[in-house]
Amino acid sequence: MTTTSFTAKDVQELRQRTGAGMMDCKKALEENAGNMDKAAEFLRAKGIAKAEKRAGRAATEGQIGSYIHHNGKVGVLVEVNCETDFVARNPEFKELVKELALHIASAAPVSVAKSGVPAEAIEKERRIYEQQVRESGKPEHLIGKIVDGKVEAYYKQVVLMSQEWIRDPKKTIGDLVKEVSAKMGENIVVRRFARFQMGQE
Do the beta carbons of residue 82 and residue 186 sit within 8 Å? Predict the structure, then answer.
């Protein structure tokens, strides 16, 4: 295969790799001069864009997943919604729910989205960061910006959708959910979770 052409076999291979439709695969290969990896990236970006467009659609089906750590000291329940019962029964959707429960047990997020982080927790972190930055001797006019950056970094640690996925730190949990949403062709929403750890409120 040259860099400027591709065959029907290439289209089929790309389709198997990405789960995208035949015409989409053909277009992706045309747009990327027959380069299989670039075409797969192109489709992934397109799929994620589609997933974002679907975000307004009602997700009322789904599953509640659970995970109990082998030592019995950590347990998780997570509700993940989709649009149809058909997708809720799909093995890939079930695997996503399982992965999310395992990730929550391991990474201990405090909320699904930024909006769920208690305001008092953010204020407390902001006060600590401000004190640290002042003590480090940074110029006054830079303090606000530096503190904002540290607060954003804090969100990435404690917000589920912003956390790096424990299996692949190049992806956030938000990226993982969007990818599965793109493959399934439905809006997928992590609705809520509860994490229990022995001895912790």
Answer: yes
- How far is Cα of residue 7 from the mean position of the Cα atoms in its chain? 34
Domain boundaries, the chain: 8-54, 61-113+159-197, 118-157
* Domain 8-54 class, CATH top level: mainly alpha
Rounded Cα–Cα distance for residues 107 and 164 (Å): 9
Phi, psi of 94 (to 5 degrees): -60, -40
Superfamily classification of domain 61-113+159-197: Elongation factor Ts, dimerisation domain (3.30.479.20)
Residue with tokens 């912003």: 162
Fold of 118-157: GTP Cyclohydrolase I; Chain A, domain 1 (1.10.286)
Q: What distances in angstroms separate CA 161 from CA 3, 172, 173, 190, one per listed residue?
A: 38, 7, 5, 9
Tens digit of each residue's pLDDT, the chain (201 residues): 444 578 888 888 887 777 677 788 888 889 888 888 888 888 877 775 456 556 666 677 999 999 999 889 999 999 999 998 899 999 999 999 999 999 999 999 999 998 899 999 999 999 999 888 888 888 888 888 999 999 999 999 999 999 999 999 999 999 999 999 998 888 899 999 999 998 876
